[in-house]
Amino acid sequence: MKTIEADICIIGSGITAAMMAEHLAEKTSRAITVIEAGKPSTPFSERARARERYKDYGESPWKQDHLDDQNAYGVTYGFSPSMHVGGLAMHWGGVAPRYAPEDFRVKSLTGLGDDWAFSYDDLDPFYQEAEERMGIAGEQGPTAFDPRGKSYPLPALPVNYNLAQLRDWASKAGIAAWSTPSAKNSQPYQGRAVCQRCDTCYPVCPTGAKYSPDFSWDALVKAGKITLVTETLVRRLVAEGQHGRIVRATGNRTDASGEEVTITAKSFVLAAGFVWSAHLLMLSRDDAHPEGLANRSGNVGRYLAGHRNIGGQVSLPLELYPGINVQHSLVSKQFMREGRKGKYLRHDLRIWESSVGRDPRLRASDGSLQLGDALLADWRQRAKGATARVRAYYDVLPDRESRITFDAARKNRFGDPMPFLTWKDAPESAALREWQEEELRNLFRSMAKAGGGEVISLSSNANDIGQEHPTGGCRMGSDPATSVVDGWGRAHDHENLWIAGAPTFPTASCTNGTLTFAAVGLRTASAIARSG
Ligand SMILES: Cc1cc2nc3c(=O)[nH]c(=O)nc-3n(C[C@H](O)[C@H](O)[C@H](O)COP(=O)(O)OP(=O)(O)OC[C@H]3O[C@@H](n4cnc5c(N)ncnc54)[C@H](O)[C@@H]3O)c2cc1C
Ligand code: SF4
To answer: Ligand 2 pocket, 326 CB below 6 A?
Structure first.
């Protein structure tokens, strides 16, 4: 059996853990050990080649990014079991907007959902810290919609000719849109290159311009600031008595040896992301905790939340040149401020250039075959205008019955039951959905009209679970009877157990969540650093 001793044991090596480890390594002299179930990812030196193979053959750039027998079942759209060093953010697109101040007090403002245990202003310094650590390139939007204490660390990614045209179009519809904040270098940063606009941000950035957690791990390991233990799955946390301290974590190597591993530490940080954090607490049930650890409230694994989206393609009488930095976009947050027409609807808005409807085609709209001059004439005609892609994420309020249970039929190699996800639409979300989605379609129609164009297609993210940028499972709150952790991420039931990021969110907002997962993790790290 392998034994490991640490002052602080961080479970998981995703982006939330990476931010926290950097913070803790700077603010304390305690020994930090990070335990990751998966293997190291494709190293940076191999990413240019991985990109070529992806483009030539559609091959995944991320070999061995998961464990074959470790997956979630049930309603799993939006859940990706990416288990390798760096977690899901090895794959991410790097889009990094903040939540709106209103997200933190939804209940106070609307009577629906829940308030957070802290405000936007409380989180602002940790947002800033996360942005500086990742290197976020951003343009200050109108302060009413985009309040921030300090400016973005990097200048915005350029609003190129295409996006400038689309920004003018949005303003005709009364919409203020600006360069989407992104974890992509607009100038060299932290030894990483400037963005080359080669547009494979996901699945893989070959230049290092996009931040991914492996950069943090490599630097921390090289400087001897942390110990990173890979291929080690934590399977149980062991607590001393009902509300006592966590005394050790136990698990096994996920390599062929399957060797048992025991980790003792003064503090344990559960940064295992959505699903796995709650799953580990549930697996750690014992006689004193028959429903799992940290579960006095019975809410571990409950209140899963996320958002849905409505998207569209809009044909416009503009001249654009599709194919220039297509993964960069404009964002507007003005609709995240308040409900419309007295009902609850808050959403973000993103705008991209698009080539949809403008590619050469062999058959005309009436189905007839086009060859030679006819083919060329059709394509010339179609290439004349422009198409914009639009999308609005809106939030889905969490229901207590949206939850994780065990799937007794599916076990990993060690015999642990895998998580099973159930989604229950919160009645208040279900009641509003039809109206909300029609409002968003109407928004796109009115935007098209303002630009003298037309909506050529609309799509609804029709999955019934709303799990894009999923959150929940270990919700925060001040009352131990209804929440799992306090506002700092400390488990109500175990004073040396901290839970980080997405699982602790009581609501999921209506924009990409990862920057906020990291910022909330940093706030937790600041509390750990202050604790003895
Ligand atoms: C294709 C794609 C594009 C995306 N684009 C964006 C985007 O543009 N913007 C955005 O905001 N978000 C985006 N996301 C979402 C984003 O990647 C995730 O929200 C984020 O990476 C979550 O980070 P995390 O650290 O909280 O958790 P994770 O990345 O899930 O990390 C958790 C880690 O813990 C490890 N672990 C789990 N359980 C255990 C255990 N018991 N023992 C040891 N280790 C364990 C896992 O192996 C994993 O490495 C995207 C996701 C995908 C897949
Ligand atoms: S566009 Fe920029 S961030 Fe995206 S893959 Fe290319 S270099 Fe990386």
So the answer is: no
Residue (of 48, 487, 82) closest to 274 by Cα position: 82
- Ligand 2 pocket, residue 216 CB under 6 Å: no
207 lines ligand 2 (CB under 6 A): yes
Tokens of 139: 């343009």
- For 322, the token pair is 């599709």
- Written as six digits, the tokens of 26 are 């700077």
Q: In this predicted model, what pLDDT tens digit does every residue of 245-295 receive, in sequence order?
A: 999 999 999 999 999 999 999 999 999 999 999 999 999 999 999 999 999
Question: What residues contact residue 218 under an 8 Å CB cut-off, 6+ apart?
Answer: 44
Mean pLDDT across the chain: 94
**Shortest CA distance to 226 belongs to which of 24, 90, 40?**
24
Closest to 473 in 3D by CA, of 405, 390, 382: 405
Hey, what amino acid is at 483?
Answer: S
The reply to whether ligand 2 has any atom less than 6 angstroms from the CB of 55 is no
The three-point CA angle 189-514-296 to 5° equals 135
**For residue 301, what are the β-bridge partners?**
none
Amino acid identity, position 334:
Q
Q: How far is the CA of 375 from the centre of ligand 1 (A)?
A: 45
| Residue 354 CA, ligand 1 centroid: distance in Å | 28
Q: What is the pLDDT of residues 303-328, one digit of tens each?
A: 999 989 999 999 999 988 888 889 99
Distance (Å) from CA 532 to ligand 1 centroid: 29
Give the pLDDT confidence of 19-30 residue by residue, as tens digits: 999 999 999 999
Q: How far is the CA of 76 from the centre of ligand 2 (A)?
A: 29
Residue 33 in 3-state DSSP? strand
Which residue, among 398, 446, 112, 419, has the nearest Cα to 281 in the 3D structure? 419
> Which atom of ligand 2 lies closest to the CA of 204?
5
- 281's CB contacts (< 8 A; 6+ apart) are 237, 270, 292, 293, 294, 295, 300, 301, 474, 484
Residue 130 DSSP SS3: helix
Ligand 2 atom with the shortest distance to the CA of 198: 6
Q: Which residues of 60-69 are buried (b: 16+ CB within 10 A; e: fewer)?
A: ebbeebbbee
Strands 260-264 and 2-5: parallel
Q: In the chain, what is the greatest distance between 2 CA atoms, to the nearest angstrom?
A: 81
Enter the tokens of residue 465.
Answer: 């679970």
What pLDDT, on the 0 to 100 scale, is given for residue 321? 86
For residue 497, the Cα-to-chain-centroid distance in whole angstroms is 23
Beta strands 32-35 and 227-229 are parallel
**Residues paired with 269 in a beta bridge:** 10, 498
How many angstroms from the chain centroid is the CA of residue 248?
A: 29
Would you say residue 75 has pLDDT above 90?
Answer: no
Residue 95: CB within 6 Å of ligand 2?
no
